[in-house]
Design goal:
The protein is of the alpha/beta class and about 160 residues long. The protein has a single domain, classed as 3-Layer(aba) Sandwich (Rossmann fold), CATH 3.40.50. It contains five helices and five strands, in the order E-H-E-H-E-H-E-H-E-H. The protein has a five-stranded parallel sheet with strand order 3-2-1-4-5, sandwiched between helices. Helix 4 links the parallel strand 4 and strand 5. The radius of gyration is 16 Å and the shape is globular. The two termini are about 25 Å apart.
């Protein structure tokens, strides 16, 4: 049986490289991106692969998420608002994309009975860490930006909703 994966943020730098690697391994991939920061050129190779399906959509859309998660085995959630500096003047956008967007992904997974998620957070959750490189179990996590706080909230939400 072929594995079928969904990748949010598939046209970003990390997402597009993940998509290429999944395809190389023989995984069928459904990618979702709204192209607010991702680029079509990042997924040019993937678009030529018959095992790749692109949905130009958003994690804020239940319809887009439902389409993306039809019959998938795992979700790689990489979508989020990437501009840390913009969180100073536009906190609501960061909250919506990073926290509500993650909730939407998790809720759609529950509805579609998708059991596995790989969630990518951000180093901004650590704030000014005293240890570099910083391990995932570093404590205390004390984000200093709104973006970091939204990422921290998203990572905690995803941890609490998975088995």
């Amino acid at each position: 049986m072929e594995l079928r994966a969904a990748v949010t943020g598939c046209a970003g730098f990390i997402g597009s490289n993940l998509v290429d690697e999944l395809l190389r391994r023989g995984t069928e991939v459904v990618g979702l991106d709204n192209f607010s920061s991702g680029s079509m050129s990042n997924i040019a190779k993937a678009k030529e692969d018959e095992d790749f399906t692109l949905i130009e959509g958003d994690v804020m859309s239940e319809e887009d998420l439902g389409e993306m998660m039809a019959d998938v085995d795992i979700v790689y959630h990489l979508a989020g608002y990437p501009d840390v500096r913009a969180s100073i003047t536009d906190a609501k956008t960061h909250f919506d994309w990073n926290v509500v967007g993650t909730y939407n992904v998790l809720e759609t997974m529950r509805q579609k009975k998708v059991k596995s998620i790989s969630f990518a957070s951000s180093s901004t959750i650590y704030g000014e860490a005293k240890t570099v490189p910083t391990s995932e179990d570093y404590a205390p996590k004390m984000p200093i930006s709104r973006s970091g706080k939204a990422s921290f909230c998203s990572s905690r939400t995803s941890m609490s909703c998975t088995p």
